[in-house]
Specification:
Elements (H helix, E strand, L loop, with lengths): L8 E5 L5 H8 L5 H4 L7 H10 L4 H4 L2 E7 L4 E11 L4 E8 L9 H15 L5 E7 L3 H9 L3 E12 L2 E11 L4
Parallel strand pairs: 4-5
Antiparallel strand pairs: 1-2, 2-3, 3-4, 5-7, 6-7
Helix pairs in contact: 1-3
Length: about 180
């Protein structure tokens, strides 16, 4: 699919051989705040998830894709979640796992590819994301893709003994 291929990276469906990569991400406590995770995931649960990852977005209301470079190095994950057919909207989340791969444009390219896919192939009217107010890298990433800050959720997430605010960003497909 040409829509999911960029200059430096491509997005692909999850495969059984991605188990260890996903297991490492899901059990990395340093990023649990991003996904509101509070417990580790077993390889068994992730294997079960991968066995069902082929299901259609219209059925499961989500889509998780792996971000890979053209040397087949696994860089991160990008998700479509809360897929709402009636209102033609969905949420987007992205994670570049290895800190050494951040700031190299992979996230920008992956987000751009996924936005085009959502608007062209899923016929969505809008996309949204939730970003902690202190996550400056994600704020810059989504704002550079045209997402607009439309709201502030005060004391939204509790992490390490403190409440943190979270911004709501939105991108409207003006092609409709």
């Amino acid at each position: 699919m040409v829509t999911l291929k960029g200059e430096h990276i491509y997005l692909r469906a999850l495969e059984p051989e991605d188990l260890e990569f996903i297991h490492a991400i899901e059990n990395d406590e340093s990023i649990w705040e991003l996904s509101s995770t509070i417990t580790p995931y077993s390889r068994f649960l992730i294997k079960e998830y991968l066995e069902h990852a082929h299901k259609d977005i219209y059925e499961v209301k989500q889509l998780r894709l792996l971000i890979s470079d053209y040397n087949n190095v696994k860089i991160g994950l990008i998700d479509v979640f809360d897929f709402d057919v009636k209102n033609q909207r969905a949420g987007i989340g992205i994670l570049i796992h290895n800190a050494n791969n951040r700031g190299k444009g992979y996230g920008k390219e992956a987000l751009s590819l996924l936005v085009k896919y959502c608007f062209m192939h899923l016929d969505l009217h809008q996309l949204y994301c939730n970003i902690s107010e202190n996550n400056m890298a994600s704020i810059a990433l989504f704002e550079n893709e045209g997402f607009e800050k439309v709201g502030l959720k005060k004391d939204w997430n509790f992490h390490n003994g403190h409440y943190k605010n979270e911004y709501l960003y939105q991108l409207i497909n003006n092609v409709h």
